[in-house]
Design a protein that fits this description.
42% of the residues lie in helices and 21% in strands. By secondary structure, the protein is of the alpha/beta class. It folds into 2 domains: 6-246 and 442-463, Aldehyde Dehydrogenase, Chain A, domain 1 (3-Layer(aba) Sandwich); 251-431, Aldehyde Dehydrogenase, Chain A, domain 2 (3-Layer(aba) Sandwich). The model has no long low-confidence stretch (mean pLDDT 98). The structure holds nicotinamide-adenine-dinucleotide.
């Protein structure tokens, strides 16, 4: 798609207030593909005003009608899925099949789930002599990252719209074209003017202005823990509602009775997918001492299939590439055993990182504690099940994880003891209705399904 040179505010593309632009770079070949305007506090203010003006009308729109508009949005996203996939590939660098299946496919599922939920959700409940009304919170400021550019947008905008909220979106600097395409889709779907607004721009300028804006009622942020803490402090000081989806360092726990080959293969695929840029990726694989070396060699074989430029794309930009390579060097320095990959860039052009596997990783190592956000897997050894649990929980994060056991019962018993928000049991399948979000420093609040919808509602109780 061709980039717009304005902001989408009040149902139309308006000129940006300033002259600055952001270059959009294709990470696979380092070429500038387009430019988008860098929004200012003035643009943010105009967008918030438009969202505020549209709020009473949208909040009063019957849920069935809101549902119909969200269903229309889902249909536009489905109809334009090839263009979405190509746009994501161009600005994120993900291989086209992944863009088609995941980056373009999942948002259609999620938008569809909210079209259904808006129509079926009970926005009123009886509690003794009270009637509790579940009302929209108001104007939402949504700030999203680049790793799943469209999914992160839809996971905020669809439930907000279902709840009756209006939205101003500030997408990531690296992936604004997908966000512009989404804005086009909201227009095509017939959303009333001002219900959805887009301001592209730099995080510390447009993002901060949005988080600080006094007429924003709820800030929903997905991104790094460092920025999340800052936004949390701002929102707290202003007594705004807040949702934070932050980082992760999830464990893939392979219990002694589990199918080792399956658990290792699925685990490697999970980490390498999207070049490791998945906040919920199971970047720490935990294996018992007896089967440890077998797991290491299975992982080395599995990772060889991830050829840079073919099955695995680049990381998003030069800074991320340097950051991930720095972590690989740190792993070697701290004494981890390099089994595959390494810090050298595998290709001359593009921000590629070699798919990397470390063995003999111990829990206190930097690569076992910090989020790398690249195609790097650490394999840790545990002595017994209690030791595995201690290692799994030994991080400031708690976003996701996986457990493989001899049967589901054994795996569930372990999962109950994990300090984390989502656990896949014996290779469980993705469920767009399951609440997604973090324990500990992985965040506040939940996205997806009815739990995600309730984030955008506030209660009013009437007593009779
Ligand atoms: P980031 O925190 O740098 O940026 C995220 C968004 O915040 C971007 O839109 C950015 O422009 C904006 N931003 C930056 N500084 C800001 C400020 N001071 N005020 C307001 N907005 C600001 O993160 P990133 O590099 O885009 O994404 C990578 C990180 O995001 C990883 O740590 C990853 O784990 C996390 N992440 C978490 C989830 C989740 O659901 N938990 C999902 C995806 C990514």
């Amino acid at each position: 798609m061709k980039a717009h040179d304005g902001m989408y505010i009040g149902g139309e593309w308006r000129p940006a207030s300033g002259q600055d632009t952001i270059a959009v770079v294709n990470p696979a070949d380092e070429q500038v593909i387009d430019h988008v305007p860098a929004g200012t506090a003035e643009d943010v203010d105009a967008a918030v005003r438009a969202a505020r003006a549209a709020f009473p009308g949208w909040a009063a729109t019957p849920p069935a009608e809101r549902a119909a508009r969200i269903a229309a949005l889902r249909d536009v996203l489905a109809a334009r899925k090839d263009e979405i996939a190509e746009t994501v590939t161009a600005e994120l660098g993900s291989p086209l099949p992944l863009s088609q299946m995941v980056h373009a496919g999942v948002p259609v599922l999620v938008a569809g789930s909210y079209a259904e939920l808006a129509a079926s959700y009970s926005f009123e409940e009886k509690l003794g002599n009270s009637t509790v009304l579940l009302e929209p919170v108001g104007v939402v400021g949504a700030i999203t990252p680049w790793n799943y550019p469209l999914h992160q947008i839809v996971a905020k905008v669809a439930p907000a719209l279902a709840a009756g909220c209006t939205v101003v979106l500030k997408p990531a600097e690296d992936t604004p074209l997908t966000a512009q395409l989404f804005a086009e889709a909201t227009q095509e779907a017939g959303l009333p003017a001002g219900v959805f607004n887009l301001v592209t721009g730099i995080g510390t300028v447009a993002g901060q202005a949005l988080a600080e804006h006094e007429d924003v009622d709820l800030v929903s942020f997905t991104g790094s823990t460092a920025v999340g803490k800052q936004i949390g402090a701002t929102a707290g000081a202003a007594v705004k509602r807040l949702a934070l989806e932050l980082g992760g360092k999830s464990a893939n726990v392979i219990l002694p009775g589990a199918d080792l080959a399956k658990a290792v293969n699925v685990g490697v695929a999970n980490v390498m997918s999207n070049s490791g840029q998945t906040c919920s990726a199971w970047t720490r694989m935990l294996v018992d001492a007896e089967r440890y070396e077998e797991a290491v060699s299975l992982a080395a074989t599995a990772v060889a299939k991830y050829v840079p430029g073919e099955r695995v794309g680049p990381v998003v930009n030069a800074k991320q590439q340097a950051r991930v390579r720095g972590y690989i060097e740190k792993g070697i320095e701290e004494g981890a055993r390099l089994v595959a990959g390494g810090p050298e860039a595998p290709k001359d052009q593009g921000y590629y990182v070699s798919p990397t596997v470390f063995a003999d990783v111990t829990p206190e190592m930097t690569i076992a504690q910090e989020e790398i956000f690249g195609p790097v897997l650490s394999i840790l050894r545990y002595e017994d099940v209690d030791d595995a649990l201690r290692i799994a929980n030994d991080t400031v994060y708690g976003l996701a994880g996986a457990v493989w056991g001899a049967d589901d019962e054994e795996a569930v018993a372990f999962a109950r003891r994990m300090d984390t928000g989502q656990v896949d049991i014996n290779g469980g399948r993705f469920n767009p209705l399951a609440p997604f979000g973090g324990y500990k420093q992985s965040g506040v609040g939940r996205e997806l399904g009815p739990h995600g919808l309730s984030e955008y509602l506030q209660t009013k109780s009437l007593q009779f």
